[in-house]
Amino acid sequence: MKISLSNSWKTITILIIAIGLILLALGGYLGPVFAAASRPVVLAQAWLSNRYIAFYQIINSPQEESELRARNIELENEVDQLQSQIITLQQQLSETQNLEALLGFAGSNPQLQPVAAIVIGRDPSPFLHYLILDQGSDDGIRKGMPVVTQSGLVGKIDAVIAGASRVQLITDPGSIVNIKLQTQKMDAQIIGSITGEISLEMVPQDIVMQSGDMILTSGLGGSFPDDLLIGQVISIRKLENDLFQSATVQPVVDFAQLQAVLIITNFRPVDITPLEP
């Protein structure tokens, strides 16, 4: 009987303690106790997890690095190919735009009877300024014919063979073009140079020039038709004791980017050298 009562009190005591613990847990009073008790377990799990990750990386890192390097090489090759395609497309677009502009100019100036020509070469010498075109004597091209773009004057045909011709640019040191100012009644000359700079020379001192004045061919000398646009004045050099003033000319044609030009075939240059004193 005593043993039975003792077991009952133990059971009741355990129930009371369990209920009390449950109530304390529900009330949040045992949170710090649980946290302190679980900390060693959490630390142990974290330690094991870190060691597992490190071990996994050691085993798989070489293979992953090899795969990443191979993928990087593939991506770099794709980027190079795309860049090459972009450059090609940009060049084709530029050529198409230039040809369209030339055709538009030719269509609006049929009296010039222009023949389109593609630039196929340049003079390798840094002291000479010539272009090689794909049109020659078989195409009706003759020495002395003016060469232009839709922007303005390029130069003149200097030499011709059956299937090609050579253009002397107005930037060449041997090039001399008789010109006039659009706003002034005067005649002068532009002269090329080794550096490619164009100088306006033989301008009388009484002529008032201004930066931005437009320069056109005058037609004098028989080498070029008149009223072909050349460029504009960008700087003026004038000294009181000199007979003439001079200036630097900015051409309207970008000679470094020339890809196609027009040859004026209905103009026949006149060589007046034997008539000059």
Overview of the structural elements:
The structure is a single chain. It is built from two helices and twelve strands; from the N terminus they run ααββββββββββββ. It is α+β, with helices and mostly antiparallel strands. The protein has two domains: 1-108, no CATH class; 113-271, Rod shape-determining protein MreC, domain 2 (Thrombin, subunit H, Beta Barrel), CATH 2.40.10.350. The chain has a six-stranded antiparallel β-barrel with strand order 1-2-5-4-3-12.
Summarize the structure.
The chain is of the alpha+beta class and 277 residues long. Helices cover 37% and strands 26% of the residues. It folds into 2 domains: 1-108, no CATH class; 113-271, Beta Barrel (Thrombin, subunit H), CATH 2.40.10.350.
**Average pLDDT, to the nearest integer?**
82
The helix-strand sequence is: HHEEEEEEEEEEEE
User: What is CATH's topology name of the largest domain?
Assistant: Thrombin, subunit H
Sequence stretches where pLDDT stays below 50 over 5 or more residues: none
Question: In the CATH hierarchy, what is the superfamily of the largest domain?
Answer: Rod shape-determining protein MreC, domain 2
Q: Helix count, per DSSP?
A: 2
